[in-house]
Amino acid sequence: QVRVVGFDDVNYASLLSVPLTTMQQPCREIAAVAFRAMLDSIEGRDIPPRSYQLPARLVVRESCGAYLNS
Description:
Blueprint: E1 5-7, E2 21-24, H1 27-42, E3 57-59
């Protein structure tokens, strides 16, 4: 047997014949952080490089075999 996990939780992941287990990224938060950094740069703010950790979420569906023993 094969178990599959994807990344990005694309819209069709839950619609596949075997729904895809996937990691869901906080896309809005990533975009907001990137936009703020871009504005800081455009406005000439001398801000040192930063690192951010934003929470991802595991969306468990059938492709990982989680439902086989249910």
